[in-house]
Amino acid sequence: MALVLGMHDNGRTLTAAPGTAIVVTLPSNPSTGYEWKLIASDGRVVRLVSQRYLPPAKQIPGAGGRETLRFVAKARGVVTLVLGYLRPWQPKHVVQRFRVTLHVT
């Protein structure tokens, strides 16, 4: 079973079992140069396994889509996942953050 998260889960504290897939889907628009990046985590507890951009259903110039980051809960512990919406060439200029605390039990 997967734990599916979106922007509405920002700031929440959640519980997952080891082996649980954690799927975070957030709005994204790479035509602006911005993308979601993992800023903070503990790879011993939760590991990023993939990241993928999903374009909008209608191909309208400049329209945004969604970015999906897939994690897996590896071991028991507590971790705060922090994602930042930023331009790779401006890593300190984060325009939006997504943060969840996971208790892997």
Element layout with pairings:
Blueprint: E1 2-5, E2 13-16, E3 21-28, E4 35-40, E5 46-54, E6 65-73, E7 77-86, E8 96-104
Parallel strand pairs: 1-3, 2-8
Antiparallel strand pairs: 3-6, 4-7, 5-6, 7-8
Explain how this protein is built.
It is built from no helices and 8 strands. With 105 residues, it is mainly β. It has one domain: Immunoglobulin-like (Sandwich). The strands form 2 sheets. The protein has a 4-stranded mixed sheet, with no helix packed on it. It has a 4-stranded mixed sheet with strand order 2-8-7-4, with no helix packed on it. The model has no long low-confidence stretch (mean pLDDT 92).
Describe the structure concisely.
With 105 residues, this protein is mainly β.
Estimated share of beta-strand residues: over 45%
Number of domains: 1
Taking the alpha carbons of the first and last residues, their distance comes to: 15 Å
Strand order of the largest sheet: 1-3-6-5
Per DSSP E runs of 2 or more residues, the count of β-strands stands at: 8
**Total helical segments:** 0
**CATH domain topology:** Immunoglobulin-like
Specify Rg, calculated over alpha carbons. Answer: 14 Å
Give the overall average pLDDT. 92
Spell the H/E element sequence. Answer: EEEEEEEE
- The share of residues in helices is under 10%
